[in-house]
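step=encode ok
step=design start
structure_in=
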């Protein structure tokens, strides 16, 4: 009986189909555009598989305040299909490259009514499991300054102010050091001149003596010479 079951075991092994792996889809987070301009909405994906010939891209749109989404674009079998009855008829163009995993679309002549959320979904068989990615479109008469630009400007201004403070600090130190050096040089110069003057003043002066004493000495000398002559 055991031998019989052992012979049956190989025939009972199930055939496991090729498993699919997760696919990751990427779009932007939020896009701003002006009324009447064109904008490209990018969509790409990551998959461990080679790009399949059966790769598909699908775009849907949900207007601000609406509950349901509508399909506006689909790419399958190597051909793009644009919705010719929706709000983007004659204004949507496929500009992607499926061979490079790019399913981007171009929206033309934007209007305020185009504000809403665009969702891209992609499949790369057998990788078909993945979460769609969404990007929000905001159409303005003038594109507002984004918070990142304001933050960058503030950081740049603060850094510039810090650099200016550091430069002023070192400049002041240099000027103070130069002032101290000039004062010390001038003091040493005055001391040298004072010493030279004192030395000149201390030069001994030969004493001429009292004139009366000189006359007395001269007369005494003459007397001694006259005495010598008499002798």
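sequence_out=
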């Amino acid at each position: 009986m055991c031998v019989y079951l052992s012979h049956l075991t190989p025939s009972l092994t199930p055939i496991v189909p090729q498993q699919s792996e997760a696919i990751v889809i990427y779009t932007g987070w939020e896009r701003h555009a002006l009324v009447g301009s064109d904008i490209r909405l990018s969509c790409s994906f990551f998959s461990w598989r080679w790009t399949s010939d059966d790769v598909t891209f699908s775009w849907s749109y949900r207007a601000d305040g609406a509950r349901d989404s509508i399909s506006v674009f689909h790419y399958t079998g190597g051909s793009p299909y644009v919705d010719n009855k929706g709000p983007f008829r004659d204004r949507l163009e496929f500009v992607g490259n499926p061979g490079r995993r790019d399913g981007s679309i171009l929206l033309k002549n934007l209007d305020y009514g185009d504000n809403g959320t665009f969702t891209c979904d992609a499949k790369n068989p057998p990788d078909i499991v993945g979460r769609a990615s969404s990007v929000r479109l905001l159409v303005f008469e003038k594109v507002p300054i984004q918070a990142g630009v304001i933050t960058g400007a503030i950081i740049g201004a603060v850094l510039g102010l810090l650099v200016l403070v550091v430069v002023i600090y070192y400049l002041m130190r240099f000027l103070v050091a130069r002032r101290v050096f000039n004062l010390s040089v001038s003091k040493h110069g005055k001391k040298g001149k004072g010493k030279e003057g004192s030395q000149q003043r201390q030069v001994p002066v030969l004493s001429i003596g009292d004139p009366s004493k000189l006359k007395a000495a001269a007369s005494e000398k003459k007397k001694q010479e006259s005495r010598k002559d008499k002798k």
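step=design ok
step=annotate ok -> The longest helix spans residues 147-201.
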